[in-house]
Amino acid sequence: MAEAERIIGTPDIPEAAGAEPEQSDGETAGAGVGTERPKGRRRIAVLFTVAALAYALDLVSKLIVVAKLEHHEPIEVIGDWLRFEAIRNAGAAFGFGEAFTVIFTVIAAAVIVVIARLARKLYSLPWAIALGLLLGGALGNLTDRIFRSPGVFEGAVVDFIAPKHFAVFNLADSAIVCGGILIVLLSFRGLDPDGTVHKD
To answer: CB neighbours (10 Å) of residue 166?
Structure first.
């Protein structure tokens, strides 16, 4: 079990021969100063780097879409199977629930707060990537909710990726979905955000 935890994503804490695989806070205090805390800081850095990248890509793509594509004919990317078409979405991801814009805004803000709090106990690289995708996507759509018309907390999100027979979405939606899928996979594997591995 201890070996599996080290491979999947637990902090690399040196263990004496015959030591228990799990240690209390007091037992890891000495090692934590030089090893555990730097590992945790690196995972947090990964989380916010992924979030910043996802947010920047979403923001830049929306600025381009609003400037070059809105009020223009859609651009066919792969025939009629995939095209870029600018729309304003007052609902949740993929256009669902347009009557609950304020509620979705509050939920997005709550997700950001939860991820920021969870980051303090983050020691797993895969979880850092997953949470970074969620954070960047949530920030991207929340920015639209706050700053775009028709008003603060009621703004319509800019969507533009339009596959055939599917709802129109944006890069923030994609980041949220990818992060959610990764979290489900990590949960099935029994890997927790703090790097511990459990089996039900």
So the answer is: 11
- Asked if 135 and 115 count as a contact pair (C-beta separation under 8 A), the reply is yes
Question: Which residues, at least 6 apart from 2, have a Cβ–Cβ distance to it below 8 Å?
Answer: 15, 21
Helices 37-68 and 125-147, axial angle in degrees (round to 10): 40
What are the pLDDT digits (tens) for 81-134? 999 999 998 765 555 555 456 676 788 888 889 898 888 889 999 999 999 999
Cβ neighbour number for residue 38 with a 10 Å cutoff: 12
What is the helix (H) or strand (E) element at residue 188, kind and residue range? helix 171-189
Q: Which residues are part of the catalytic machinery? A: 159, 173
Rg, C-alpha atoms of the chain: 21
**Phi–psi pair at 15, nearest 5 degrees:** -120, 140
Taking the alpha carbons of 92, 96, 102, 103 in that order, is the dihedral positive or negative? negative
Nearest to 101 by CA among 109, 93, 92, 114: 92
Give ∠ CA 135-25-22 in degrees, rounded to 5: 90
Tokens of 45: 């850095």
N- to C-terminal Cα separation, the chain: 14
Tell me whether strands 75-78 and 82-89 are parallel, antiparallel or unpaired: antiparallel
**pTM, 2 dp:** 0.74
